[in-house]
Amino acid sequence: MGISITINGRPHAVTASDETPLLYVLRNDAGCKGVRYGCGAGQCGTCMVIIDGKPVQSCDVPVSAVAGKSITTIEGIGSADHPHPLQRAFVEEQAAQCGYCATGIIMSAKALLDANPNANDADIRGALSKNLCRCGTHQRILRAVKRAAIEMRK
Amino acid sequence: MANATTTPRRLPGSLDTNRSLATWLSINRDGTVDMRPGKIEIGQGILSALTQIVAEELDVNLERIRVVTADTAQSPNEGTTSGSRSIEESGMAFRYAAAEARELLLARAGAKLGVSLEQLSVSDGTITSRGGGSVTYWDITDESLLQREATAETAPKSHTLHKIVGGSAPRADIPRKVTGVPSYVQDMDLPGLLHGRVSRPPSAGAQLLNVDLDEVRAMPGVVAVLRDGSYLGVVAEREEQAIRAQRRLARSAKWRTVAQLPEFDPRYLLKLPAKTEVISEKKDANTTASGATLEAEYSRHFLAHAALAPSCAVAVCNGGKFTVWSHSQGIYLLRDEMAPALGVALEDVVIHHMESAGCYGHNGADDVALDAALLARAAPGRPVRVQWMRDEEFMWEPVSSAMVVKTRATLGKDGNIASWHFDVWSHGHSSRPGRGPGSNLMSSWYLEKPMQRAQTGNPPLPGGGSHRNAIPIYDYPNQRVTNHLIANPPIRTSSLRGLGSQTNVFAIESFMDELALAANVDPIEFRLRHLKDARARAVIEKVAAMAGWKANQKGDGVRGRGIGFARYKNAAAYVAIIAEVELAEDVRVPKLWCAFDVGQAIHTDGVINQMEGGIIQAVSFTLKEAVKYDREHITQKSWDDYPILSFTEVPEVEVALINRPELPPVGAGEGTQGPVSAAIGNALFNAANVRLRDIPFTRDRLIAAIA
Predict the structure, then answer these.
(1) Is B309 on the interface with A (CB under 8 A)?
(2) What is the pLDDT of residues B116-142, one digit of tens each?
(3) What are the extents of the domains in chain B?
């Protein structure tokens, strides 16, 4: 007990038991509902967050493993009123059908573009290879990430 | 005259069964319009299209319109949101209801301004008289305005006047969804919310022998443990506590298993007794079938919806009355089946629709709603949220039936098809709730007092289920199409995007290519020779132009192109696809072209998005997907066991809409599956003379076919 983490810049004292997946702390204690359950096994990317600049699937990490770390979720990068360039690009490209995969994909893409602003098509596809989309919106999503990359380089 | 009152006149779309205008629309004094569709959003963008229809007919800006999400307390009962019927049913109801509402408002304005209706025009709800003077909808509306039966006698606008319909207003939901604003039933958070989980049997139909409930009751956070017959569930304060308790229950429970699953080959269907019905027969004594005769057999495995979000519902039970939040595609039918399963009256169950991830058909949405209600009753007064785990979704959602098709055709002297035989074997493609007798809610079969399991069947023709698109759109002088429906599926089946059309169109369109080869005619030319329908010819010619199709061009051994075409249900969207394939270790599909016609496009970007998505999903179906099982269990538990197309594999898709604003609009969601599968199969043959007739086109099958 006594674990503390930082979520989107705010300290958070963890009350859940150590082995609790980070996902449930984020969703149910910190109210970050944009971090989504999809598989619980790190295979689909709907729960993607960024820790130390790296994309991490929060369903597959016990909260004790991220003690003291700083976690960024989709809620921490922008809002409907003040969207991140990636979020704005998803709206501009209408890059969603059901949208359930979108938040995790945006987090994977952000981790990529922060590290490699000049990412090409293959880099982007590679970075999103852990994110599934069942509606088949991939093409629009790839366009949105490329549009955001141009915006972020400005 | 005596007959005039007996049968009310048929009204357009769902207006026919929900005739009060006030059910559909409210014109509010605060300058807003409420619209209440009975259809629901499943990621297909339907609410954006319906909003455009209402704004168009009312002459108000889109921003004024608020969509009230469907619930069984106040929304029109529009059955299920399925079969790509929402534009035809809900869209047409709103079109006529809004046109009539506008006319009622104009009548009031005319009276107030003392002018005739011809002198009035409307802009964003402000009615202006030619001679000066104006009033707004918001000034003259009141509760009584729409408290009347629809007549549908006000003609909607001519398409030539449309300013909003046919456009592509940005979807209102996307900014919320991409910023993480709670949007789905999974995100519901009510005061005192508890978390429930169900501990499923090891295989379908198993009987619970014994289980230690006390050790689970003693676990941290556990509020209730429920055993009802062979149904086992747990409610806990926290989600991870519920999951741990569920796992403990699973370890402790002892079951008697009974499941007998078929061999892992769709051809098991051919060995079972079937209800056989000839669904189309044509005979022309004047044609002689003197050319080559070909026979072929095609198949597809069971296929999963595999929604990205495992199914979820929230329920609260207060004094024996249930309130449920569900992503069911048919909340009224779900209510009709939940109430008897819970042993309460219909009015004691109210269901509110909330969105989930795309479902593509009947998945676990309805089942989990009953789970939430059963567990809520075990923890009365507090809301209980149940989300299935990933393995639960893969093992317990209903899936699309395996299918086998046998074809035989003979060419005539002219090289055209003189006779055509087509036989389909499949289980039923529909077991949605509310289609009783009996219950289609899975958990109800395991209770101490179990509900009788309902039969799985087919929607009737002309739409059909396993026989959807089994009757060819092509003109053959002689044909016989026979449906063999096999009852009691050993694996639970229900509707999945397109139902039987994927396999039937795959078989028809693959066989057309095989016959074109025998006739020594280019596949596109061969199709056009058998097609009179001008809209069908137009999409085929368009896609050929897009792809730069060259007649009789063979692939180079590695790359090749193929075509697939269908008109969905022979009555809705026309879709023509050309696929380009590349043979490597696996079949790869780098590019597809699509031309389609849905009559009048209501929300242009929305239908294009549906087509693109349908195409990419169909590539995944065709190359990768089959439900895995052994003789006792569904064995797929994770995305490793049921891989779908990934970002590193998705093709480029180029889509062209042939818009026909003068024609009625039809749905767009399900037309692509069959044409895509066939186009890929035909492209493989074009590339390397490899004919794959069994879906999915896996590496093993490719290697076997080449060898």
Answers:
(1) yes
(2) 999 999 999 999 999 999 999 999 999
(3) 13-175, 185-257+305-396, 268-302+399-429+465-706
